Fold Sigma-54 dependent transcriptional regulator.
Amino acid sequence: MIDATVLVIDDDDDILLSARLFLKQHFSQVITCKSPKEINVLLSRNEVDIILLDMNYQKGASDGREGIYWLEHILSIDKDYVVILMTAYGNVELAVQAIKKGATDFILKPWENEKLFATLSAASRLRQSNKKVKKLERIHSSLQKDINRQFENIVGNSEPIKHLQNTLIKVAPTDANVLILGENGTGKQVFAYELHKLSHRKNQIFMHVDLGSLNENLFESELFGYAKGAFTDAKDDKPGRFEMAEGGTIFLDEIGNLSMPLQAKLLSVIQNRTVNRLGESKERKINVRLITATNMPLNEMVSKGTFRQDLLFRINTVELLLPGLAQRGDDILLLAGHFLNTFSTKYHKSILDFEPKAEAMLLTYHWPGNVRELQHVVERAVIMSDSLKIGVNDLQLSPQKFGSSTPIQSDMGLEEMEKLMVQKAIDKHKGNISRAAADLGLTRAALYRRIEKFDL
């Protein structure tokens, strides 16, 4: 029994009875009607999968014009309806013309039951396929809308961000492979999506693959797909992420986590621009834009023999180095304001701004978790705050992260707080200027200037 609804339209009672008696043995629901004028009502009340449509209804008519008219009417309601025409032997040429206008197939009257069943079975499979495609299109459209909401334009006016934005404008229209480097939480995925949005592939899929969370045993099947029977649970053919991203952009996050054998397999795909599904020898061409990212030092890994140099050459035609949040100056307040607006709307709060002392704390904190940490801090503050402005206590920034028990006081001035942070970083690293500077997101020279300024 095929789970599908068949609508049969014919002005001959004998034809309708014959079709109903036979088809109800094979299809879950069979609906019959004598007049095509009932089509609108029947389609509005039933989820019809296949429409079996006669081509002539008026007495003595044989030119098939009515069938063509109702075919066009049905397809104007939904172009994905599967319509099969019923015609006499003399109308075969007309039926072929109707197929050119959108009919799926035609059968001859009087029909043979086996041929009728075969034709309707194939039509049912086509209808199910069309449904899946439409569902995937809706999901894709919804996902793209969600992505557009999640990754708005890059927020920031600092020099490092302006430089990166200028680079994005130059690189995005090309198909050059881009490697994005940066600490966790610096926004690598945001920059990858911005590259996609500015490219000629912007209307196609943006496929994000987190290689860090991908089980090594599933790497090939997930990225390259598999054929039916390739392994125990492979009950159907399945395309991999590269195939699903066809025409669009594939973003391989945490590429530094790949083992050497998996690096070799990925290199082969990038070089040849083809994939082989597990369990089959057929090569499938792929057309994707490749963007990769990692927080790991790939050049050092190459020197140590843990990352392939030829793979590094392939993925970093252009390299983007994202700064830590502490290196972005007043961008911290821009981002904090952006998150404040976002979460105030989300949680139905009327929080307008940050208190000056809270802003000072945001600027002097060293943000080990970068933008992601700032986002979480502001979200938590919005949830917990009962006032119109976010205060120091709402931020809940832990002083223990700086290796000192000296508390951050809400009545401290900006310079006092900055001095305290610098002192904490130096104490934490026992006078090692390089490590203290890195912890603060500063250069050694910038840290020395602050040491001199605060007479530390």
Q: What stands out?
A: The mean pLDDT is 86. The longest helix spans residues 113-150. The radius of gyration is 32 Å.
